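Today's session is about reading a structure prediction critically. Students often jump straight to the picture, but the first step is always the sequence itself: look for stretches that repeat, for charged clusters, for runs of hydrophobic residues. Only then move on to the predicted structure, which in these notes is written as discrete structure tokens rather than atom positions. Here is the chain we will use throughout the hour.
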Amino acid sequence: LRRWKVPFEAGHSYPLRGTSLSVRHVASIATSHVMDARTSSSSAPSNERCALVLPPRGRTRAVAHVAGGAFVGAAPAEAYGPLLRRLADAGVASVASPYAVSFDHAARASKLRATTSRAHREAVSFGTWSAAAPAFALGHSNGALLHALAACEVDAYAPPLQGHVLLSFNSRPLDEAVPVPGFMDAAPGFVRAALEATNVSMERDTPLPFAQLESVARELAQGGAQFTPTPQECRRILRTRFPEDARALLVQFEDDAIDQTDELAMLLRTRCAPDRVQVKRMGGNHLTPIAQEALWKAGTSFTPMDAFAQVAQTAALADLRNLADELIVWVERYIL
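Below is the predicted structure for this chain, in token form.
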């Protein structure tokens, strides 16, 4: 985009003639540029707007297709900002694709792939990065599951992905994902009554973190109480349809009770050459990829709670830096 020397100003939208992509300069945070890329028409709903996180200087060396976990996946450029900016400093741009939470993982995976691929192609058409820049998937938690399922579809990505980085993968039944006894039995009727009582109706441009809550609520009210495909079906799909020549880095964290990376590794190694599937166990927890850099501000007096918070944040950011460093090493070795 620098080739046109556009005088971007924060918060303004700049539709570009002759294309369906418009770009809004959101911020210049640290040294990386974050832009909002609308990947269909100018009237595209919010769940089709991908954020581009670009290297601060020089050309893009690689591109990550980013999908976040469940509800934070609604705003991936913000939720994963510190991680993506560290990747950008190493020359890795990101196409961060938001998605609405749904019980239908198969449909969401297909939508995610189409939206991200379209944004990637349009970024190439603008000269944002070269068509030769290699791309890879980067998914966290539910986003890791969606990327894995998308890779199993018959139609190939455009451009083809050179690898998959799957963080904290999990594919659990709904009653385990929401471990409250009796909740899933009572939820459909309760939610249906709540929707009727409040006459909830989200507009198409409602911020996605809120709009997608309605979509889940309506699925519950209509009797949806299980994921599609089921965890058992997911295992069969990955074991039989994941690309045999794929390269994958599976990252699990030491303090993550819902992680299923070990099971995923066994499945993929029955499908791919074992040396093409790497597992990395790192310090941290399920929330490490979304650790934030905002400093804890103490009150008028420094309390033990302030000390605890600062120590916890320092540890979280150290784990995040280690994760970013590990991803950069893997990209430089296997993707570039």
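Discussion point for the tutorial: The first strand starts at residue 13 and ends at 15.
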